Amino acid sequence: MIFTECNKQWLDLPNWVSHLIELGYKWPTRDPASPRRIALVTMPCDSAGAGLISLGAIIKDFENTRANQLDGHTDHLLRHAKQDLDAQRSGKEPECVIKSRRRGESGKWLVSDRTDIKNRQLVFFQNRRTELTIFPNEKGLQDYYLDGEPPVQSLNPGMSLSARPYENLINNTEILNDNLINSYSGLCLAGRASGGTKIWNLCDDISFLDGHNSNRLSELLTIKGWHNKDVSRMVFYNSRTGNFDRDPIGLNLTIADSNTAFLKIIDDEYFSTSDIIAIMHRIMERDDLEDVGSKLNTMMQWYTDDTNILDELPPAPSGITIRVLKKK
Fold first, then answer.
1. Which H/E stretch holds residue 50?
2. Fewer Cβ neighbours under 10 Å: the N or C end of the chain?
3. Chain-centre distance of CA 312, in angstroms?
4. Where are the strands (E) in 13-155, listed by range?
């Protein structure tokens, strides 16, 4: 596996690149019964470090039998249907749009007022004479998904993911084929306050070459709109707008790109169940550095340094530092 940045010469993977990928891969899978952890990784300069850590975390989740949306998909649809029905009762038109991949069910479907939330029965319509009833125990429920979100499962072999670009980045990884066709929303990349363009540009400037196949980091992250496949294994959070690109479901780990993203999400309730790995460079403005320091000082009322976990993580190369906090 070789690497290039900004279309320069192809090189063996630099230590800092390998380290950040391995850091994301070796970060412990979040256990709800265990204390929440916050990691701060500092780099000597601006970089696509958040994307590289995210890549390692994606590879780790490929090995996890529970890293999919199948179990929570019914509740996800019911929750949005209920919100839409409540809005309809207030006099608004149906807005929750469902799409189906089944033959003969093309187009967009709206939530019918005949939906029975209590008995978990979903009813959609295209017009009042064309209705579609979905029962939660129906085997093919994954065929239905919210418009604007990736399908919970891809049935098109050409639109699923390939294991090869990932398995050659980490030795002896065991990628599950099912996870190459299943989307997942438990992993999140939080972009900077300036929006999503900066981190996308940084990630798009990095490519990996394995044999004859070149893959951009931006595409390997599988964020919706960053690649051309159905499956998405990572949610994107825009710190500028405060919006996710889709609902996070069972958020376990968030990688925050920069001090601004870290400060934006650290107290946000949407991230309260998630571990956070924040990556920032040491050439930030003095005021920004003081803001981060002040926040850390406040957090030490509820957190303590976790030095034990450092034995489980790869040793940092020169120029990179990591500090991990654990909730008391």
1. helix 49-62
2. C
3. 23
4. 37-43, 97-100, 108-111, 122-127, 130-134, 144-146
Q: What does the block give as tokens for 82?
A: 């209920």
Number of other CB atoms surrounding residue 302 within 10 Å = 10
- CA dihedral (20, 292, 255, 69) in degrees, to 10, reads 160
Question: In the CATH scheme, what is the code of domain 73-146?
Answer: 2.30.30
3-state secondary structure of 292: helix
Model pLDDT for residues 47-70, shown as the tens digit of each residue: 999 999 999 999 999 999 999 988
Q: Which two tokens stand for residue 53?
A: 């850590």
Strand arrangement of the beta sheet that strand 213-216 belongs to: 11-12, 2-5, 206-210, 213-216
DSSP 8-state secondary structure symbol assigned to residue 152: S
pLDDT digits (tens, 9 = 90+) for 18-50: 999 999 999 999 888 889 999 999 999 999 999
> Nearest-CA neighbor of 191 among 233, 231, 148, 243?
243
pLDDT digits (tens, 9 = 90+) for 230-249: 899 999 999 999 999 998 88
Residue 307: how many CB atoms within 10 A of its CB? 10
Domain edges within the chain:
2-70+155-327, 73-146
Q: Which residue has the tokens 């299943």?
A: 182
Instruction: Find where tokens 């390692």 sit.
Output: 56
Between CA 230 and CA 152 the distance in angstroms is 9
* DSSP category for residue 316: P
The token pair at 40 is 């701060």
Quote the pTM value.
0.90
Radius of gyration of the chain (CA): 21
Burial of 262 by CB count in 10 Å (0-12 exposed, 13-18 middle, 19+ buried)? buried
Q: What is the pLDDT of residue 65?
A: 93
By C-alpha distance, which of 28, 3, 37, 35 is closest to 17? Answer: 3
